[in-house]
Design a protein that fits this description.
The complex is a heterodimer of chains A (224) and B (597). Chain A has helices at 12-46, 60-88, 208-217; strands at residues 99-106, 109-114, 119-122, 130-134, 138-145, 150-154, 159-163, 169-174, 180-188, 200-206. Chain A is α+β, with helices and mostly antiparallel strands and 224 residues long. Chain A folds into 2 domains: 12-88, Helix Hairpins; 94-217, Sandwich (Immunoglobulin-like). Chain B is mostly helical. Chain B has 18 helices and no strands. Chain B is globular and about 80 Å long.
Amino acid sequence: MIAQPPAPPLTEQAQQMEDLWNVFLIGAVAVGLLVAGLVVFVVVRGRRRSDLPLQQREHIPIELAYTAIPLLAVGALFALTLVVLDDVDAESAEDSVDLVVEVTGFQWQWQFRYPASGVVETGTAEERPELALPAGATVRFELASVDVIHSFWIPGFRFKRDLFPGAATTFQVDIGETTGAWPDTGVCAEFCGLDHTTMRFDVAVLAPADFEQWLIGRGGEGAP
Amino acid sequence: MTTVAPDPRLVTVDEVLAARPHHPGGLPATLVGWLTTTDHKAIGVAYAVTSMLFLAVGGLLAGLIRVELARPGLQLVDEATYNSLFTIHGSVMVFLFAVPFGFALANYLVPLQIGAPDLAFPRLNALSYWLYLLGGLVMLGGFLTDGGAAGFGWFAYPPLSGPQGSPGLGADLWIVAILLTGTSGTLGAVNVVATVSTMRAPGMTLFRMPILTWNLLLTSFMILLVFPVLSGAMIMLEADRQFGTHFFDPTAGGSPILFQHLFWFFGHPEVYIIALPFFGVVSEIFPVFARRPIFGYRGLVLATLAITALSTSVWAHHMFVTDQVVLPFFAATSFLIAVPTGVKVFNWVATMWTGRLRFEVPMLFGLGFLVTFVGGGLTGVMLASPSLDFHLSDTYFVVAHFHYVMGGTVVFALFAAIYFWWPKVTGRMLSRTLGTIHFGLLFVGFQMTFFVMHALGRDGMPRRVADYAEVDGFAGMNMIATVGSGVLFVSMVPFGMAIVTSLRQAPTNDADPWAANSLEWAASSPPAHHNFDWLPPIRSERPVFDVRWINHDDIAAPGVAAAWNARRNKDPHWSPIPGNGAAGGDGDGDGDGGGRR
């Protein structure tokens, strides 16, 4: 497709949402072309005639049909949405989580804490923080804000979640096997005041061994 | 299929009016006249002109935004100014342009469409207008304060909009402005509901009302439901800022999410409050220029009722990414509201299906509306799915979506309305050539500006950013959008020329230049001060059409001719029908011009 986010789907959940997006996109393009085609058809057929057409006011079976068919279509899309939602918004038991990252948003940067290894990565106005994640791991994010509402968005996750002051939010993903670095792709998506624009971070998915090195390089204790 | 050959025995409104004493009409001629008027037509024009001026203000702010975003880096404004620009752009367009133009339509057209001499409460109506103007000036006054105008986005989420997040006076002025325009809207809605409920002409049953009047009535019900909620939220927010309360302050046990619920309980119906009047506009225009009745009138009314009812149960789809709402419920209602909306689209297409189309300027804008609206509806279905909204929320994809549904469709239908009713208001036509150029430029400019924003959002560009990195690869698409917005500005040139040239012409005062359907075309152009010199019998939703075809039993609504003739010896306002021997006409049977329509 023409529009491609800066990173491929980095999590299993992102892949599911990407597949769902493609279904919706194909459906939307199809319906859009159908209606545009109907409009072009009536415009071409209706021009250059000056007599009074049949003054038909309604046709109940046709009206019922074009009520029922869209109803079925959105019903199907709703069902697909629920199937995907069940997976992407699910959280498993504590012991099946490989890594917990505590994300704190503040005006106007991020702090990422890896509590198991003691690593703390804090952004400044001059330097973006880096969020490193191990490939293949199940990661839980615990999100909180210290001031106003922010939103933690990694386009490679196809997912964002708001950070509220005074109440933690969480989500969980299964990182895929694709490794790489996507600098400057992490975003604060909820407008949060003066320097909202610059509240960005780097994202990297590392092989497990490289992730160890990353933690140690930042004064951490390595694997939990 | 039955078709009818052109027939000289068509009756025109002008012939009927010519046989009657004429009462002068028109707008106030003096400043004092404008300041003191309670005439619904003058106030309607005041609403229209004022909201168009605010469209210009909002458009200029948008132009500054687009110039800033044309290339990466900060060139034009600093971030604080940029934040004020998009906050006031959104607020002006929603609160001071789109909703008030709906009230312009309601003011001018509802009494005319139902055969009433004015709105139910003319002085309350004047108060509504002046509160609106005052609110608009208060909001723009923010730019004159020390800290600049409000810069927290048009939905003003606390804590950012709270006393610590936005200490400036501009924020307080913004809140007061929303309270003033909200009060204005509530009073205006009371007036519309009372007028439609009690002042319909004899024969004008609910199911003979024009679709536009239906939509304005249902819009007013939605306003009565949700504007007070917004006003309540604003009072709470202002109390947090100035009186030491903590409704939305999380450090003292308050709840920021509560504000989001209150705001979007207003905010999503607001989308339909903005859109329904314009759905009504095209529902008037398509039948006239397709020479058919609106297809599925009853279905269309039911669809509008369904939208009205569902609109109050979809609000939390604006909050899918907060993790604090029941996702399946709000997804289901949001998907569901697409169905009556789709029904409307099919009704409009079906109206044209076997129509004989006339591509006058209002029809062109109507078609532009239709195509644009379908685009916005399809992305709306995508955003109804939480699984997709997690990625798309708060990005330029959403910006594109709501500029299609609240920007493009409103603007196309608005210009359709201006070109359509201008002859009624002024007694003059607008240039067809200039109007066609205007439409072409607006359509191209709009699609250029906003279509690429879908891709920008999907590719990761968040909304409300003053800058973007070169590595993002957004520069090309942003440049296309900025050039497109330039085309939008250029499109206003032929429009302005059309207005000026029209006003410099001598009026023709054609009562019914489009061979239209609804009752306002039975009044003179411009209408008399009390609106009607004469009312035709109302036996369908197309009383003027029925009079035109009164000599054709198979085309006019049943009973029209009989009702007409029955007035002969009883009604002092009875008027002979030209060319109708049975009704004692004046023998002038040429019915000139009727046949060409």
